[in-house]
Amino acid sequence: MKVLESVSLGCLFFVAVILGHSLSQTISSPSAQPAESLPDNFIEFRSAPDRVVDGSVVRVRYRCSRPCQLAVEVVVSTLKKTDFVVFRKKWISRLGVYWISRVVLKLPPSILYKQDFFNRRVLDPQRVAVRAWLDHHDNSSEPKTYRSSFMWAYKVLQTTPLSERPVKPPTECPSWSAHLMWQMRRNRIHQCQHESDIVDMLTFPLASTGEHFGVIRKFHPFIDRSLERSRRHAVTKPRFTLSVWIYLLEWCHMRVCGIIHHINRENSFDSILMLLTDAGDVVIQARVTSGEDDAFTALVVLPLRKWIRLDCYVQDSKVLLDVKWDDKSRRIHYRYKQPVHFDDTDGYFVIGGGRYMQGIHGYYGPVRYHRFGTEEVNNPLQPSSTLKMLDKTHQECQEVKEFTKAFLQEVTMTKPTPREKRGTTPFIRPWGQAAEKTCKQTWTLEKQLQYSNLFHFLQTNEENIRTGFLGMKKLGAALFESSVKTVFAKNQTNNTITLNSTSLLKEASCLGNHRASLLLATIHLSGLGNSVDQQQGHVYSLIGAAGDNRFALMHAGYKHSQGIDGFPKDLDLAYSYYSNTGFQSSIDVSRLYESKQSVIQHIYLNNPDDLNQLSHQKNDGFQYEKFKAESGDVQAQRNLAVMLYRGENGVSKDTDSAVKWFERSAMQMKDPEALYDYSIILMKGEGVKKNKTKGFKLMQKAAEMGSIRALNALGWYYWNILNDDKNAVKYFEQAAQQGNEDGMFNLGIYYLTGTHPDKPWKNETAAFQHFLGASWYGHIAGSVEAARYYSTGNLKGVSRDVERAVMMLKKVCDQNGHLGFMIGEALQAYLQSSWQEALVKYMLAAETGLGLAQSNAAHLCEELNLSPDCQWRYHNYSILNYDPHPATLLKMGDHYYYHPLSITRADSLSLVGRAVSMYSRAAVAGSPQGMFNLVVLVKEGHTLPPDTYNFFSVSRYDELHVVVEKILKRCVEAEHEDAVTPCSLALLGVQMGKALSRMTQSGAQLILAYASLLSALVITVIMPLQSCLRQRISSQHVRERTSPVSQEGVRIIREQNGIMGERFTAAGILGFIALKGEQCLRQAGDFMVTVSGVCLCVFWTTLLYYLL
What we know:
Elements: H1 2-19, E1 42-47, E2 57-63, E3 68-77, E4 84-93, E5 99-104, E6 127-136, E7 151-157, H2 176-185, E8 198-202, E9 206-209, E10 215-217, H3 225-233, E11 239-250, E12 256-263, E13 269-277, E14 282-287, E15 293-298, E16 307-315, E17 318-325, E18 328-335, E19 348-351, E20 361-370, H4 384-413, H5 445-450, H6 452-460, H7 462-466, H8 472-484, E21 488-491, E22 496-499, H9 503-510, H10 514-526, H11 534-546, H12 550-562, H13 571-588, H14 608-630, H15 634-646, H16 655-667, H17 672-684, H18 692-704, H19 708-720, H20 725-737, H21 741-753, H22 764-776, H23 780-792, H24 802-813, H25 817-831, H26 835-847, H27 851-863, H28 868-879, H29 886-897, H30 905-924, H31 928-939, H32 946-951, H33 960-975, H34 982-999, H35 1003-1042, H36 1044-1059, H37 1066-1107
Antiparallel strand pairs: 1-2, 2-5, 3-4, 3-6, 6-7, 8-20, 9-20, 10-19, 11-16, 11-20, 12-13, 12-19, 13-14, 14-15, 16-17, 17-18, 21-22
């Protein structure tokens, strides 16, 4: 035991020596300028170059109130990408005085030199900028970026045109053959791909709500030089043709509405504009070569609910407009005073409404544009069956509206008589029977039978209709709520969903409830309880979107952004729908805590922890906060007030009680945020008498105590109440510098409108930067505005990036309060075991593209043992999102990895490749299970995607143990658990194997390894033998002490020894020899165990040395 204790102490001492490391420190030069005049957190350029020059020096002056991370970056914006980082230098600074850091810019050759043999890939930047940013340093694994920073400095650098750049100095000599091939190919005129002057601007129907959210199309110059030469020549003598199909639900409510219009780079209207008047006429406006605008009105009076084709032919100053619908046609000729000026690459075109003009309320069919004109347009109505079905559905809806309107009018004009029973109406008696009152029937018996379900519903709710409780506006919602609980039925025999009658849903859709439209589209597109019918699904998707329903708009935008369910992938169309919902969301957020809105609860039904946490919050969270609040805890009082005000954590909304707790927490004058909340309550007068004076004083106090939101609120008060722009901007700037997104957005409005008191001119670039900064912090209106600039690309220095705009708007739409309310309803239905209502509402939310709802809808399909198509449909949708939940990715990865055995080997490899992709995405999203699965796949010999290798800072050419070790290390960091986990065990095994391999590289250490194995074997054998020997000796001693025969024999021997001169007998000698032998054996065993223990200790100490 003493030997083992000594060895153990030696091991611990050796490990402690191995783990000792010295820490390096970085010393920076403090600024000589006194720090009293500047804030605690500050960053600026002390000096920066004006032009793009390699090796130029940037000096950054900064100060941090606590340890922070800083960076200097050079970003490039091209026609295809904005703010592409080409240089980055990061460092960590200590708190204290002001520091000045010197950074040398090392720029890539792609933005410095011409294209040549050694510099083949060059960039033609529209803008190059150097920026510095500052963010607080913490121990989180999330990397710091410019977007996450709260302070930054920015400077635009002048660039050198491509033709004026120098040639890159050669660093090596190319081979003769390579140089010859380069000389032969450098001036080769490449054969351009075939380009057509015919552009299909729209091939899939577009639903237009009559607002400012149309489809943006941008045209680029021809690649073919001859075509581009012809286009430029035709700018002042144009010849082009535009053909568009429209379907009007209403005439324009404004003086004019846009059918198609053109916005140039100066954000002015340009040739050509096709407009609709409030009388149904068409206006064609163009800009002539003198720069003036000219227009004419075609008095055609377009009909409602008819597919109309408008063909506009323009040649020089002549215009021909053909208008056709059904069998009717009109042709209008006009000649402008001067030739039309037309450059289709200048700015962008808008189909429908845009920023400066509302659109029509209806639908767009195919839109075809001939850039060089044509004698006759070939633009048939496509897809014909879908658009004709859309027209038929609207005609049927007109009948439903007329039928319902007549019923309501008859009921409200009729007073019940004593002879009539409640719930019946005089006009539904058998035909021909005399009644006490004569009724004028406005429908036939055929119509009554056709809409029998609607008729029965109206008859049942006659009393509510008569009292005015149920009018035309509320009937659609009542029909939807009545049918949503009975639309599906589960067949217990084969676990399938059967579809009941959808007539009430169709009638609800006709009466303006477009959740019913979305549910009908979902039924037809998913085939749930019915066969898949994409045409019907498209029809009801368009009807819902034209009805301006948030969920239907998100549904259409999501389908077009992904290109699924028969919707073509078209990001411009997706942006059109998402921009509408984003604008509505920016309004909804100001009423987020009103009825029918709530914050989305991210509860995943397949995660027991989420459900348990929800139950705990409902039962204990509120009571615990109330107990602490009553004890005087300021933070608890504020938390309780927020719960009651917002209706969170299962607590019903109670504004009066919330206001009381807001007041109690604020009046303690300890928490600035509590003061701010109560000041807003006083300003609005919610649950308390409005008192702006007291609210303003409390707001000032909150700002003095450090509330950033109060600074922004003070700016708003000076801006909107006191009309003091100077003080408003002062407070907005203070709030923005400290990371307040509202302050950033409000400053952006000042720059956009040109009302900044110190800079009284319109500065859209500065406005965009502030909107973009606000969007990084999740500001909804800021995201909508920034996305608008990305969608057009009309602002200098901002490249058109529709995909980024769609991503920004989708994140905004996924936070919509109405969507959160429906998710809450679905969750409550699930907790109350109302599976059908939960499934329907989760499906409706899933169709909008919300990953949470898609995951829960798939879980319900699996839990209810429905067909696999239902489950995998929504799992597949979920992984198409920009940020899918890791659990869904793991589910799909398992689905692909454990593929059926009946498939071929080629299909098997393809499915495994998909599994690798799913696990990789889950790992990048931070899932430890995904990382562990990747380790298994890598060991099996599978190759990971390049992005995954980059994420783990490894290469596909690294050794296997290096890749595995780095993935497992990241996995252990992601687990955040002190307990032993699979990743930690696997990492220990890898590291021990690595240490053993390093140990066995030298002969002495190899002998030590074999000796340790032998020592382990010796200990394994000797220890049991010693134990058996001890037991044998101890048992023998016991027998000798207890046996009378043995004691007598000893006495006799002793007597004989005394008589015979103490001579030993043969038996005594043998016993003595055996005793000595056992003692020697024990001593030898102890010696061997000791030596083996020392050997093992040396081995493990050496192993720990290599391991650590």
